[in-house]
Design a protein that fits this description.
- The protein is α/β, with parallel strands linked by helices.
- It has one domain: P-loop containing nucleotide triphosphate hydrolases (Rossmann fold, 3-Layer(aba) Sandwich).
- The protein is about 40% helix and about 25% strand.
- It contains 9 helices and 10 strands.
- The protein has helices spanning about 5, 55-60, 85-95, 110-120, 125-135, 150-165, 180-200, 210, 235-260; strands at about 10-20, 25-40, 40-45, 70-75, 75, 95, 170-175, 200-205, 215-220, 225-230.
- It has a 6-stranded mixed beta sheet, sandwiched between helices.
- Helix 6 packs parallel to helix 7.
- The termini are far apart.
- Adenosine-5'-triphosphate binds next to strand 2 and helix 2.
Length: about 260
């Protein structure tokens, strides 16, 4: 038995489909995705632009509703929840980090980090707050507003905000997409530590093989489907795999062109 079959599932999808538009303009953003995301793992989702990565994350995080299929987070089927319960689940059990940090400009770093709890009318656990802030390395920046921080610092605030409610699972959509290598490394290091030291579960979309090499598992999407996955790959293995997938896609496109 592999470690993955023994690990608990933090979230899963069954035959997930998302279709945009209709008729000739119809786009199948997700075309039958069945996936288990394991607790205590750092998982990367990779794939070409338009392959459905963001759509998948949004459906998993209850920010979007699928056309068909099921999403289960922490044992709860999202489709069974009414609006209020869904908002509660999203607030308490799901964290989300966006590419564009999405901090509130008028709030300090500390206020931004605590925002999910403030909105829920909950008090922070001081020990956990301390631990998250120390790990994220922002102890001396807590009074700063986003405009007074670098991109990497802002994204680390966004990561701390995603973790503050101790969610079951954190979804991060290209969290290092807007960062230089050093700031990106800081954010990836923090995400890795939160998996290793706090037993967090993180799913991250990335285009970058180096970023994906921080992960325990890499899942590849193409045309709205899971086409492959790798366990604990290094950067070169990921790059080689991406090249193979791209060549296969080009061959398919070539065959389709020859047939038409
Ligand atoms: N709101 C929408 N309306 C219509 N089509 C959409 C919408 N959102 C996404 N799509 C389409 O669905 C497909 C998947 O989009 P998605 O944003 O999930 O891709 P992605 O893998 O995240 O791409 P990228 O790497 O560029 O961020 C694309 O063809 C996109 O054009
Ligand atoms: Mg995207």
């Amino acid at each position: 038995m592999t470690t993955q079959t023994m690990a608990a599932s933090a979230a899963h999808t069954t035959d997930l489909r998302k279709t945009y538009g209709s008729g000739a303009a119809q786009v199948k953003a997700l075309d039958g995705v069945s996936l288990d995301l394991y607790a205590g793992q750092f998982t990367a989702i990779m794939g070409p632009s338009g392959s459905g990565k963001s759509t998948l994350m949004h459906c998993l995080a209850a920010l979007d509703t699928p056309t068909a299929g099921e999403v289960v987070v922490d044992g709860v089927a999202l489709a069974t929840l009414k609006d209020k319960a869904l908002t509660k689940l999203r607030r308490e059990r799901i964290g989300f980090v966006f590419q564009a940090f999405n901090l509130v400009p008028t709030l300090t770093a500390e206020e931004n980090i605590l925002l999910p709890l403030t909105l829920a009318g909950r008090k922070p656990d001081p020990d956990w707050f301390e631990l998250v802030v120390t790990t994220v390395g922002l102890g001396d920046r807590l009074g700063h507003r986003p405009s007074e921080m670098s991109g990497g610092q802002q994204q680390r605030v966004a990561c701390a905000r995603a973790l503050i409610s101790k969610p079951t699972i954190v979804f991060a959509d290209e969290p290092t997409g807007n960062l230089d290598t050093i700031s990106g490394g800081e954010v990836l290091g923090f995400l890795r530590r939160s998996v290793d030291e706090f037993d967090q579960t993180i799913v991250m979309v990335t285009h970058d093989a180096h970023a994906a090499s921080y992960c325990d598992r890499v899942i590849f999407l193409a045309d709205g489907r899971v086409v492959d996955e790798l366990d604990s790959p290094d950067r070169d293995q990921i790059l080689a795999h991406m090249t193979d997938l791209q060549e296969a896609a080009l061959r398919r496109a070539g065959q389709a062109g020859a047939l038409s």
